[in-house]
Amino acid sequence: MSNTEKFTGRVWVLGDDIDTDIIIPTEYLALPTVEDMKQYGFSPLRPELAGQIKEGDIIVAGKNFGCGSSREQAPEIIKALKIKCVIAKSYARIFFRNSINNGLLLIENSDIQDVVKEGDEITVTMGESIEKDGQIFPITPLPQNLMDIINAGGLVKAMQKRNGIIEEG
């Protein structure tokens, strides 16, 4: 994903303080893989949500998204659900870093949540803006080093690429 890539996705609207226990409840962390866990994503809040999300959808949320424990499975579940990105008013610091390290794109914007409804489509132009029905909401681009990590699929893959040891296949 380049800093100028453009994509459109269907919106799922969530509120403020969506914590990691809502993203993936503790009782499902014992399952063997993230693929096994993903069906339980967001289940305390909306049990049907994980089954309704389609590849390329976008989560739009309020402030403090990803608060709570620092479990890495939270961004992994969102990625496994094939969410294109999360747009929120703000993020918990450790969730933000865990998401980047796992290759999940996060965008901060304080206005879009107030104008979208669930099911709306929005278009994101990376590093520039979010567009909804002709309204433009500017976004601040992520630094290139963080985009490199996201584009590689996460920190481990980015370091493998940088060091020339990416596994083939």
| Main sheet: strands, sense, barrel | 7 strands, mixed
What class do helices, strands and sheet pairing give?
alpha/beta
CATH topology, by name, is Aconitase, domain 4
- The number of E-state strands comes to 7
Task: Tell me the strand order in the biggest sheet.
Answer: 4-3-2-1-5-6-7
Give me the strand/helix succession: EHHHEHEHEEEEHH
Oligomer: single chain
Query: What's the CATH class, please?
Result: Alpha Beta
User: Strand percentage, roughly?
Assistant: 15-25%
Shape: globular
Unreliable spans: none
Rg over alpha carbons:
15 Å
Q: Mean pLDDT score, rounded?
A: 93
H/I helix tally: 7
Second rung of CATH, namely the architecture: Alpha-Beta Barrel
Fraction of residues in H or I helices: 25-40%
Instruction: Identify the CATH homologous superfamily.
Output: Aconitase, domain 4
For the record, the count of structural domains works out to: 1
Distance between the termini: 20 Å
What would your notes on this structure say?
The protein has 169 residues and is an alpha/beta fold. It has a single domain (6-162), classed as Aconitase, domain 4 (Alpha-Beta Barrel). The protein has seven helices and seven strands. A seven-stranded mixed β-sheet has the order 4-3-2-1-5-6-7. The two termini are 20 Å apart. The mean pLDDT is 93. It catalyses: (2R,3S)-3-isopropylmalate = (2S)-2-isopropylmalate.
